[in-house]
């Protein structure tokens, strides 16, 4: 199921794999980083590009897809377990067991089934989100690769055939006349942006902890309570 | 038994069977075996700190935390189901003891 580019389809894993068949993107990433570094060696203005690309490494969409597979399997199993317990309870005829204990047990099993559904929903949500993340990462890696390929092609051309061309002029102008102070300032900006990004990601992770763990976190007690007589 | 306010009909075998069905592991269709299957998470389930890049590290870290929660949840639910089974068996045993006691009582009278 982990076949690289997959779009989440409600109600089942997708087998649609238009871009790659589970290729490990890491070689592509190091190649991209290498090409960017090569271009930056010639055009110093590109140095911050190398750094900011480096901060997205080492992504591995395959692993994320695998985790998404795991979550959807977990969701299925937990859901089925809850439903089976409920069915087993329901199939015992009324005549065979009539007592207050039965009602109590029925309540427990009902609560357990509800908790299972909640946990299964959370697991499915996680699976869907991870699929989107992995797909966005995959597309992003290819875009970065394309950008790096174009940049290094321009660099190569200017090295082999001498300076020239519209893009070369742009890059040249971009890199020329940058003072050390300017470069320091840009590095600072980059670090601030990266720091803000990390802070945002941390906040997002905390939010995910709160919103996406319904029924998955034992400490909320639902599953444990429901399952304990 | 007619005239009792609270009906008390116990069919010991089916109550005990209900408990056993919760945890039966023979044909893989009981709640416990479904949970066992669900709890056997694939090897790459923990994606590691940097599967989403350096900037995605908080997310990846959190994801692996949630995997840990889910594992705990499955484990505690399985043990909860075993407790249910014990509970149902206890109900059956208590009933049998009470019934035996009643019968003895009746015979003595």
TrEMBL record, chain B:
Region named Disordered: 1-36
Protein name: Uncharacterized protein
Organism: Nonomuraea longispora
């Amino acid at each position: 199921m982990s076949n690289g580019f997959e779009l989440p389809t409600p109600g089942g894993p997708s087998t649609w794999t238009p871009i790659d068949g589970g290729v490990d993107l890491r070689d592509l990433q190091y190649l991209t980083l290498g090409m960017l570094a090569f271009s930056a060696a010639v055009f110093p203005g590109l140095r911050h590009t190398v750094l900011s690309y480096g901060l997205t490494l080492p992504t591995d969409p395959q692993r994320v897809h695998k985790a998404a597979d795991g979550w959807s399997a977990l969701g299925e199993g937990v859901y089925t377990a809850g439903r089976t317990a409920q069915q087993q309870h329901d199939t015992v005829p009324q005549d065979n067991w009539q007592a207050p204990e039965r009602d109590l047990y029925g309540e427990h099993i009902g609560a357990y089934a509800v908790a299972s559904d909640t946990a299964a929903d959370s697991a499915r949500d996680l699976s869907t989100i991870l699929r989107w993340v992995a797909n966005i990462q995959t597309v992003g890696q290819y875009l970065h690769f394309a950008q790096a390929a174009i940049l290094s092609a321009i660099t190569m051309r200017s090295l082999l055939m001498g300076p020239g061309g519209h893009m070369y002029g742009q890059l040249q102008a971009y890199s020329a006349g940058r003072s050390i102070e300017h470069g320091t300032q840009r590095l600072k900006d980059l670090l601030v942006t990266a720091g803000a990004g990390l802070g945002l990601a941390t906040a997002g992770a905390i939010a995910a902890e709160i919103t996406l763990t319904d029924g998955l976190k034992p400490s909320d007690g639902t599953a444990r309570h429901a399952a304990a007589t | 038994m007619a005239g009792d306010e609270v009906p008390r009909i116990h069919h010991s075998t089916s109550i005990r069977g209900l408990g056993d069905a919760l945890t039966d592991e023979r044909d893989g269709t009981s709640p416990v075996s479904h949970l066992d299957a669900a709890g056997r998470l694939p090897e790459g389930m923990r994606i590691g700190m940097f599967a989403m890049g350096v900037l995605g590290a908080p997310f990846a870290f959190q994801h692996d935390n949630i995997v840990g929660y889910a594992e705990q949840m499955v484990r505690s639910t399985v043990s909860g189901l075993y407790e249910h089974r014990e509970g149902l068996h206890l109900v059956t045993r208590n009933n049998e003891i009470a019934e035996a006691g009643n019968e003895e009582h009746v015979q003595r009278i």
